[in-house]
Amino acid sequence: MPIDSTTLVQHMNDRLSEIQPSDILAFNAEIANIPGIVRLTLGEPDFNTPEHVKQAAIDSINNNESHYAPSNGTPALRQAAANFLAKKYGVNYDPDNEVIITAGATGGIYTALSSILNPGDEVLIPTPIFPLYIAIAKLAGATPVFMDTSANGFVLSPEQLKQALADHPKAKAVVLNFPSNPTGVTYRAADLKALAAVLADKPIFVLSDEIYSELTYGETHVSIASYLPEQTILLNGVSKSHAMTGWRIGIMCAPKAITAQLGKIHQFTVTTTTANAQAAATEALSKGMDDAQTMKQEYQARRDYLYEALNKLGFKSAKPEGAFYLFSKIPAGLPQDSMAFCRELAHEARVALIPGSSFGPGGEGYVRISYAASMDSLKTAVERIATYVASKAEVK
Questions:
Q1: What is the distance between the alpha carbons of residues 57 and 80, in angstroms, rounded to a whole number?
Q2: Taken in order 387, 389, 392, 396, is the CA torsion positive or negative?
Q3: Which of 47, 63, 255, 304 could form a disulfide with 243 if both were Cys (CB 3.0 to 4.6 A apart)?
Q4: Residue 267 domain boundaries
Q5: How many structural domains compose the chain?
Q6: Each residue's pLDDT tens digit, 176-185
């Protein structure tokens, strides 16, 4: 009798049973067909890629740059990436042997965690956080250790990190993401110095995802690689800074010895990223270093409007210092189960937000609101949320 595919599923990687499909994508698909719904769900810039960047890709295609690029990235892009990071954030990497061009920052996350973690290891993850790190750690056979930062303004404290390290001697790495998805909170220089002091004498990797660095409001972004250059695997890219999510170009930097090992996983999973996309990213990072500024000004105006408007409706948030998200507490009197609240809001008010429970411990009772949407859409969403909140008050 022929083997049935459902039987074969039982013979797949055991660790897949610990991983569930993305709540974020699943919920976004669930509510997508509600007529007239305003979606403030996905973290994708609503701007277009700059024209000069698109033209660089067109020129690359017309020049028949359609062959394999070097596995770690074209020399031109690695040089442009190194120059960008040095000029913007004062961190220095040798483009020849300390920079890898990845398939988006997510490709870098997979490469880094797969390279670092062995089965039985532990990885320290401050939450709420984008759930990708958790899934990849589990797939590597490691155990995520959650550090709930909700009581500390969503910033990991040195004391909390010290305690986690003392309690978890198998910890191999700590993950940082700032400015943060989902909270928009970031780490200032003093915060990073304090965390670095805790980690400096320990054989702990720091995976620092700084993809939103160019969308930092107020103070200039500071990288933890400035304080822990020998321990940090730094991730960045052009997805958020240049509205290039679909181009799938990320940057991963680390000391030479570490990069040599990272390159093995990258080589045998991705081989290389797309040649014309690399040409576009080279243009973005070299001749478009400040392309994010116009977008950032618009995001900041949206943040200010949405923060004030939702605060008046009872949705309290830590004021975002970067990225394009609000992480807001669901007001008392409304469903406190964040998934139930988001479903009800979508169907009754035709506004889609992401449940805070999707982002790990400390996220329940909150919602993530993406303001990578037009001001008109944000105003419509606020009007509908206001009507929804008022209707619930009337019922009481």
A1: 16
A2: negative
A3: 47
A4: 53-287
A5: 2
A6: 999 999 999 9
